[in-house]
Amino acid sequence: MINKYNIAVLPGDGIGPEVIHETKKVLDAAAQTYVFQLQYHEALIGAIAIDETNDPLPQDTLAKCKASDAVLFGAIGDPKYDNDPSAKIRPEQGLLALRKALGLYANVRPVKAYQKLIDKSPLKESIIQGTDMVIYRELISGIYFGDKSTSADGKSAVDICSYYQEEIECIARLAFKAARQRNNKVTLIDKANVLETSRLWRKVVKTIAMEFPEVELDFIFVDNAAMQLILNPKQFDVILTENMFGDIISDEASVIGGSIGLLPSASVGDESALFEPIHGSYPQAKGLGIANPIASILSGAMMLEHLGEHDAAEAIQDAVLHCINAGVLTSDLDKTSKFITSDIGDYICNHIKYRTGYRYKDTIPYNKSTII
Ligand SMILES: NC(=O)C1=CN([C@@H]2O[C@H](COP(=O)(O)OP(=O)(O)OC[C@H]3O[C@@H](n4cnc5c(N)ncnc54)[C@H](O)[C@@H]3O)[C@@H](O)[C@H]2O)C=CC1
Ligand SMILES: CC(C)CC(=O)C(=O)O
Ligand SMILES: [Mg+2]
């Protein structure tokens, strides 16, 4: 019997639809080749949802996500909101509300340096070579979700950061389990010299660590961590951190790989999972064909891993590696590149099919010269 999966697809704003288009192409190539079915259910989120429904997370979207086996998410955000601090309804609220509603408490962000791209990073080869870490970022609590307000005279504003023990325990266990499959090291990034919430994180994480005696636990303040990430990224294996610190340090960590357009993520909860590139809607690039779709495509591979389609997930990762090694790159990684967003998707699709001998009728033109 053929496995069938219902996938809610939320392209969103800016480059979201473009990178999702390439990701669906690649997922379809993987599904054809490895013989399973993906049924897509598209829905609105973000600025486009506000335009059409006045709601950044319409009920229909949430219902489709809840009814799906997994959610594929592009990006949200639009300059008309970024440039208007007084807007009460904002695209980002859609993504935050969706993460909360689906209980996606852990955002898993793998970071590595590709050998072929070593010279694309502004960091020295000796510093980044061999970097391989994964960031476990708490995703549905902390300052992004605390009470917020602005005073009547508009001269002061408040954002509350709060954490409950249980929220820390859930993600800490996932991080320690991941470390056991990797190099047995968890680093908690916090600001425990200043923040009460960070002191709670330290206390709770130390307790959870006792369940994993084989895993080494160390602590680092976030300001020092920001420096260590680019001074000596190889020291990190699994990074565990709260919501806002994780958001910030993962964009910083993307410099190691050469572009934020390479970094995928999985946002997981006990009942649902959503797969999203770590980048935003990059509105300046919308429609220009310069967006790197690899972060989204690798998020698609993480989705297949989650669904249990391990061979297909591995085939996508392998095809991405070949694409990078062949120098088929968007302009974020090669200023002289003539390749556009869809060339990357085509190359990866072709590689998936070529490597397994085209057992199925091609839907994408096959150009052998692009295959190595
Ligand atoms: N998960 C999401 O949907 C997120 C949404 N946002 C929203 O996105 C909008 C733009 O935010 P920014 O701070 O400019 O962040 P951004 O991640 O959209 O772009 C920052 C820079 O990263 C590079 N970049 C991002 N994605 C790329 C890709 N696929 N290929 C090549 N280069 C890429 C570009 O140089 C770009 O100028 C805002 O409205 C923001 O709120 C920001 C972060 C996450
Ligand atoms: C709500 C988003 C804009 C937060 C973000 O930047 C992210 O999740 O990476
Ligand atoms: Mg971010």
Give an overview in words.
By secondary structure, this protein is α/β, with parallel strands linked by helices. The protein folds into 2 domains: about 1-105 and about 270-370, Isopropylmalate Dehydrogenase (3-Layer(aba) Sandwich), CATH 3.40.718.10; about 120-255, Isopropylmalate Dehydrogenase (3-Layer(aba) Sandwich), CATH 3.40.718.10. The protein is about 40% helix and about 15% strand. It contains 13 helices and 12 strands. The protein has a 10-stranded mixed beta sheet with strand order 2-1-3-12-11-4-5-10-8-9, sandwiched between helices. Strands 6-7 form a two-stranded antiparallel ribbon. α12 packs across α13. The protein starts with a strand and ends in a 17-residue tail after the last helix. The model is unreliable at about 360-370 (pLDDT under 50). The chain binds 1,4-dihydronicotinamide adenine dinucleotide, 2-OXO-4-methylpentanoic acid and magnesium ion. 2-OXO-4-methylpentanoic acid (COI) binds next to α5.
Topology at a glance:
Layout: E1 4-12, H1 16-34, E2 37-42, H2 47-53, H3 59-66, E3 70-75, H4 79-82, H5 91-101, E4 106-112, H6 125-128, E5 132-138, E6 148-150, E7 157-159, H7 165-181, E8 185-190, H8 196-209, E9 216-221, H9 222-231, E10 238-241, H10 243-257, E11 266-268, E12 273-275, H11 294-307, H12 310-325, H13 341-355
Parallel strand pairs: 1-2, 1-3, 3-12, 5-10, 8-9, 8-10
Antiparallel strand pairs: 4-5, 4-11, 6-7, 11-12
Helix pairs in contact: 1-11, 1-12, 1-13, 7-8, 9-10, 11-12, 12-13
Bound molecules: 1,4-dihydronicotinamide adenine dinucleotide, 2-OXO-4-methylpentanoic acid (COI) and magnesium ion (MG).
